Amino acid sequence: MSETKLIHTHDLVKTYPVAGCEFVALKNVNIDIGKGEFSGLVGPSGSGKTTLLNVIGSLDIPTSGSVTVLDHNIGSLTHKQAAMLRNQHIGFIFQTYNLLPVYTVFENIEFPLLLLGKSADDRKKMVNDALEWVGLSAKADMRPAQLSGGESQRVAIARAMVKKPALVLADEPTANLDAKNSHHILETMEKLNAELQTTFLFATHDEKVMQYMKRIISLEDGKVVKDETK
Question: What CA–CA distance (Å, rounded) separates 176 from 178?
Fold first, then answer.
């Protein structure tokens, strides 16, 4: 692992109230993720991997313990500070793509740059670079309804990568794709990881995804049960 810690969790606990009881989703999780890693959180449904991804991405906060991401203590951030961390430094890729249907491919990828206040010239160059990374330059003016599932996910990757974030969090990114498209998507992310030194952290139980991981962190019932580097 890189000596530069991008993510550090210490005795992380996350609980939720469920039907008058307390459900413990994460139990004393301790992990470090370094710069440039290509790692996966794996485990069955309900193991806590998506919850852990959400806390690392500042979409949720710890119940106890601590999570530090890019030197920011997630539990102490205000909503505005958490939003700024996500906007500037974290890219998200979801299994449902989450593309805006009325926007073109170009406009969908451009959207995070508008939030960052980039100039029109900068936005154009950055979006065109991102389209080139994922091989979709010819589809820039199309809308999501005109794309295949694999193409839609590549747009989602381009949108996550356009600002060259330090960290990309991918939650089951191949869940809605066939084997051929899954491998294409994973090869694209692997290439971006190598070229841009972006850290990728996946949540998955897909064997196809696990084949690409350089490190696999296995969770069961909210606990880390194994941590293997290939």
Answer: 7
Distance from C-alpha of 31 to C-alpha of 47, rounded to nearest angstrom? 16
Other residues' Cβ atoms within 10 Å of the Cβ of residue 203: 26
pTM (whole model) above 0.85: yes
Please state the rounded mean pLDDT for residues 153-179.
91
Candidates 209, 216, 115, 199; CA nearest to 161 is: 199
DSSP for residue 206: -
Residue 167 contacts residue 91 (beta carbons within 8 Å): yes
Q: Of 153, 149, 166, 145, whose CA–CA distance to 69 is shortest?
A: 166
Residues 192, 93 contacting (CB under 8 angstroms): no
| Non-local CB neighbours of 226 within 8 Å, separated by 6+ positions | 216, 217, 218
pLDDT band, very low/low/confident/very high, at 2 (cuts 50, 70, 90):
very low
- Whether 183 has a pLDDT exceeding 60, the answer reads yes
Positive or negative: CA dihedral 13, 14, 17, 21: negative
Which residue from 221, 164, 227, 220 is spatially nearest to 33, judged by alpha carbons? 227
Q: What pLDDT, in 10s, does the model give residues 83-123?
A: 999 999 999 998 888 999 999 999 999 999 999 999 999 99
Q: What is the pLDDT of residue 148?
A: 92
For residue 198, the enclosing domain spans 39-50+77-229
In a domain, 102, yes or no: yes
Asked if residue 14 is part of any domain, the answer here is: no
- Tell me the C-alpha distance between 20 and 216, whole Å: 35
Q: Is residue 60 in some structural domain?
A: no
Of 143, 173, 155, nearest to 109 (Cα)? 155
